[in-house]
Amino acid sequence: MDIKTASALRRLRLVSGPEAISFLLLLVCSVLKRTTDFNAVPVMGAVHGFLFVLYVLFWADAWNRAQWPLKTAAFYFLMSVLPTGGFFADRRLKREAEDAVIASRARNEGVVNA
């Protein structure tokens, strides 16, 4: 992987955490709307919707650049629709991005995998 691929993975990683948090907050707001007079669902819905769209755009870019197999791409998409999935995606993406940077540096320095 090259630096652009690592950057795509990093962008996806950076949006996965806030997307997961906004999803959880939206669920809390939905419960509060039904149990109290507090209604923040329209605001949290818009915030979560914006972050979800960003996640999907960054996911598509990462899939394209990293040349993921369908199983890996489906896993990361599934993580976007589960309430805490963004946290799990973040952890795996961090590992993938670090591996991509290490591989790129090794290639630039002329180190060949044995």
From TrEMBL:
Residue ranges occupied by any DUF3817 domain in the UniProt entry: 9-95
UniProt-annotated location(s): Cell membrane
Residue intervals passing through the bilayer: 39-60, 72-89
Origin: domain of life: Bacteria
Membrane topology: Multi-pass membrane protein
Pfam families: DUF3817 (PF12823)
Keywords tagged on the record: Cell membrane, Membrane, Transmembrane, Transmembrane helix
PANTHER family xrefs: MEMBRANE PROTEIN (PTHR40077:SF1), MEMBRANE PROTEIN-RELATED (PTHR40077)
Protein name according to UniProt: DUF3817 domain-containing protein
